[in-house]
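Is this the right way to post structure tokens for a design question? Let me know if I should format differently. Anyway, here goes:
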């Protein structure tokens, strides 16, 4: 059965290997250039141990490949659409399932072997792409402290492998339930990106309770390492201070809205230090709510675990449908 799977997918495997090799070559070439830019710009301060992070004035140019790296977000969807969705749907649509599932190999074994190899291929492809992009992004991660950013977190570490497993399982399940290849392709595409957007926009930030730091109005501290900012602003004796709407907001030190300054502290723009001191005495502070740097890998493992569990549930649904449905 494994030999049959290899014969069926050897062309796809060869094409995938060529694309991966070309991508790896581009990644290595441009990655070495970015690393050289980073060390040329930051070498002196790294030697003196006095670099300032993030290095806002440093531009690390990956060229057109920078956009290609962002598009690796779509790699799992491509795998799920063109390998996963047709697995069962094509057999049913063309009628070959009537033949394949009535031979000496049971439909359960047929499905188990094919699904196993496709999931393994998705895991390998996603893991390889994730490892290459993580290496390529190393200098940028160090310079910009942005590994929590949505377009960065999702294409590095173990996430591409987990997303690939999920997308492949989604495609297989969609093809099994819909029994038509083209609709299954659409469901896989929109389902994959829809679920990912939900996690990225609403669920991910709640994996762990965020940290809130309170500091004075005159201070401008930043957490060490890359952090994910979830909220920032000012608080007064009566709670958070909302910023007024409009493009031309009058502000005082560190962005404090002038409209929120109490009369007792409104000493004019030429006495900023006195105003900030007065505001502090009246209980006004700054706050920053964020996810700290040391939670990066826990977040990776939490989200990867969720998507692996979703993949397992989708495969379980696939087996249940195939076992109960007539060919």
């Amino acid at each position: 059965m494994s030999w049959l799977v290899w014969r069926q997918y050897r062309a796809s495997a060869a094409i995938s290997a060529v694309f991966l090799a070309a991508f790896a070559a581009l990644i290595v070439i441009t990655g070495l250039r970015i690393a050289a830019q980073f060390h040329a710009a930051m070498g002196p301060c790294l030697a003196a141990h006095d670099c300032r992070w993030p290095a806002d004035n440093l531009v690390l140019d990956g060229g057109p490949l920078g956009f290609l790296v962002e598009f690796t977000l779509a790699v799992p969807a491509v795998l799920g659409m063109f390998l996963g969705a047709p697995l069962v749907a094509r057999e049913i649509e063309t009628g070959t399932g009537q033949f394949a599932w009535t031979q000496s190999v049971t439909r359960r074994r047929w499905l188990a072997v094919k699904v196993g190899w496709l999931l393994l291929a998705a895991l390998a492809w996603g893991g390889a792409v994730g490892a290459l992009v993580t290496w390529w992004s190393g200098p940028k991660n160090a310079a910009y402290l942005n590994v929590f950013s949505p377009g960065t977190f999702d294409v590095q570490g173990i996430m591409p492998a987990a997303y690939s497993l999920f997308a492949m399982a989604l495609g297989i399940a969609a093809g099994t339930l819909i029994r038509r290849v083209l609709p299954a392709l659409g469901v896989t595409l929109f389902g994959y990106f829809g679920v990912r957007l939900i996690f990225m926009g609403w669920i991910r930030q709640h994996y762990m309770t965020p940290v809130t730091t309170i500091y004075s109005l005159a201070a401008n501290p930043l957490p060490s390492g890359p952090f994910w900012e979830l909220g920032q602003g000012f608080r007064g004796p009566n709670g958070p201070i909302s910023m007024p709407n409009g493009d031309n907001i009058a502000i005082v030190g560190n962005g404090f809205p002038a409209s929120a300054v109490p009369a007792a502290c409104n000493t004019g723009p030429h006495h900023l230090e006195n105003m900030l001191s007065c505001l502090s005495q009246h209980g006004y502070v700054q706050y920053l709510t964020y996810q700290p740097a040391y939670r990066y890998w826990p977040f990776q493992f939490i989200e990867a675990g969720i998507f692996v569990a979703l993949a397992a549930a989708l495969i379980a649904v696939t087996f249940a449908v195939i076992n109960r449905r007539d060919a």
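Format looks fine. Someone answered above. Worth noting: The chain has twelve helices and four strands. Strands lie at 211-215, 228-236, 239-241, 285-291.
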